[in-house]
Amino acid sequence: VLDRACYAYMAAAAEATGDETLIAWMQVKIDLTNILTTLRILRMGMGSVGEAFLEEALLTGGSLGMKFFTDAYESGEAGLWDALSPTAYYRLAHVEGDPRPLYAVEKACDDLYMDKVREGARVPFGAPVAGGYLVGCETSVKNIRIILAAKDAGLDNTVLRERVRVSYV
């Protein structure tokens, strides 16, 4: 409920600016959140109860509709990856592992989102400049948290490098 309200507010704020770049960023953010939600519910193995839960958990406003995710849910995790292959999110289907590690899928989502932000922030003036800066700051903070948590857990630097997100600059 809170996520739905938060994302609805952010999508409305992006729409209010009238800036196509910010609107596109929100659609991608919503799609990626829905992909991760679907994956998590699939991995819970909840069957038909999970499908009802998924329909309630999915956010609206992305480029991938509710039917995309419910069909993918019915097909299982392999069906989700197959369904993503012809979309703009095809890179997620190429995360290695069987099953794909959740941390690797989350990292691929974050990196894909950052690539979209970097692409749109090439505009010399306007809202995407400020928006890109804010997303970059959020990513920097996330990277600091990842580094501190990895150091606290005693993880090897190689593992740490695998988990750090792509930077804005």
Description:
- This protein has 169 residues and is mostly helical.
- It is 73% helix and 0% strand.
- Helix 2 packs antiparallel against helix 3 (47-57), helix 2 packs antiparallel against helix 5 (102-120) and helix 5 packs antiparallel against helix 6 (127-153).
Fold topology:
Blueprint: H1 2-17, H2 20-44, H3 47-57, H4 66-84, H5 102-120, H6 127-153, H7 157-163
Helix pairs in contact: 1-2, 2-3, 2-4, 2-5, 5-6, 6-7
H/E order of the elements? HHHHHHH
Question: What structural category arises from helix and sheet content?
Answer: mainly alpha
Q: Can you summarize the main beta sheet? A: none
Helix share, percent = over 70%
Give me some keywords for this one.
7 helices; mainly alpha; 169 residues; 0% strand
In short:
The protein has helices at 2-17, 20-44, 47-57, 66-84, 102-120, 127-153, 157-163. It is mainly alpha-helical.
